[in-house]
Amino acid sequence: MSKIPGFKSIAAFERFHNLPEGTGKRHMQRGYCAWPRKTITDGRAKHPLYKNWRSIIDRCTVKGHTAFKNYGGRGIKFNLDWYTDFWLFVKEIESLGPKPTPRHTLDRIDNNGDYIIENLRWADKSLQSSNQRAQKNNTTNVVGVSFSSRDGVWEAKRQRNYKTIRKRFKTKEEAIAFLQGLDHEH
Fold it and tell me: Which of 10, 49, 108, 129 could be a cystine partner for 159, CB 3.0 to 4.6 Å?
């Protein structure tokens, strides 16, 4: 039985992360992962990015994590070098520039993409709300566009600066164009 959280074996970990066979242990140096637990005294737990780092790893690897189905369960991965080197993660995140406000958090630009530095940015809640997967019952496949069968019109809805912007249109294309215009302004 593997002691890697969320994996039955080291081979399963290697397959999940597309690693060459037999390299899993090398990618997981003792003291930088959950097996075996070791007290870490390098100050990382007090670093402002530590919770981000820990959350990314847990959501993508721990099958028992509440958000695993939306991350690791969908095949979302992360830069494997971050798994073994917290300070590399910090260095790369700092290359994005300082966090603009306390309300900003890390966001994946491509919601279906991995946690890699090229796919990350600082974003506030309004930008993140426009960067979500479409709900299962969404027939338009566009987040924020819906059809009101009661009124027979298309509605575009987006959060901006903690306020909801809603507008109604005769066609789906007009509603989508409106949202794309809002997204380019932001």
Answer: 129
Q: Model-level pTM greater than 0.85? A: no
Q: Where are the domains of the chain?
A: 10-123, 125-186
Angle between the 86-94 and 50-61 helix axes, to the nearest 10 degrees?
A: 110
**Length of the chain, please?**
186
Calpha distance 157→160 (Å, rounded): 10
8: left (phi over 0), alpha (psi -120 to 50) or beta: alpha
Is residue 171 a contact partner of residue 177, using CB atoms and an 8 Å limit?
Answer: no
Other Cβ atoms within 10 Å of 117 Cβ, number:
14
The series of mean pLDDT values per 10 residues for the chain, 186 residues long, is: 66 73 61 47 82 91 88 89 91 92 87 89 74 59 74 78 78 82 65
